[in-house]
Fold this protein.
Amino acid sequence: MQEKEWDSVAATFEEEVFNVPANDRRGLIEGAVVRHAKPGATATDLGCGVGRTLPLLARHYARVNAVDISSACLAVAREHCAGLANIRYVHADLSNGRKGFPQTDLVLCINTWLSADPVLREGLVSTTCRSVVRGGHLVLVVPAVGSVRLTTLRQVQLNRAQGMDPVDAERRALDQVAARGLGVFLVDSVPTKHFSPEELEVLLSDRGFALERIEKLEYGWDTEFLEPPGWMKAPYPWDWFVEARRVR
């Protein structure tokens, strides 16, 4: 999505955009933010949207950069965080490089590397990595390729339960995700980039990062299906939660 598209959903962001921090049942994001905090440390939320994680960052870091492509979303974030004086709001297109904000000790980036366009995505990845000071940490959440495969399997099972033959059940499930490129699948009809652990390790290593932690940030099946049946339990859909330290 481009700036105008994000501006158009700013007023309804909470209803339209999945809230990852609110659904982080194990507290992986908050735990990482607190763990890497130290006196005088600085942080950046890249792709902050309407500021869901800004109060958390502002409590633990001396200065916080709130960066987003949407001026409308930033306006909502500024209003929600009006009492927090240590936040600086930066309107920037992350695919075009780091402009208007300094490197910081911690960079939080939640489902920002979503573009199906490899050129735009390369810019997002590079800007994100260059925003971390040497010795600092990147806390990253990205969609998982494996989760798409698991959800597709569950869709096949649902189709079979509704009486479809095996061939039709699989074909219709695959049509719903419709692979459009390397790890690109449809999410609510929008081509969206997904990642494997190996791809993340390569991307980060090539940019001077040591991967310290990668875990599943799991969600309930109601995030994938309107009315998931009672038998649909673990394993659950997930995003990848990543912690990496910049070493060069």
Summary: The beta strands are 42-46, 63-68, 87-91, 104-110, 132-143, 184-187, 190-193, 209-218, 238-246. The radius of gyration is 19 Å.
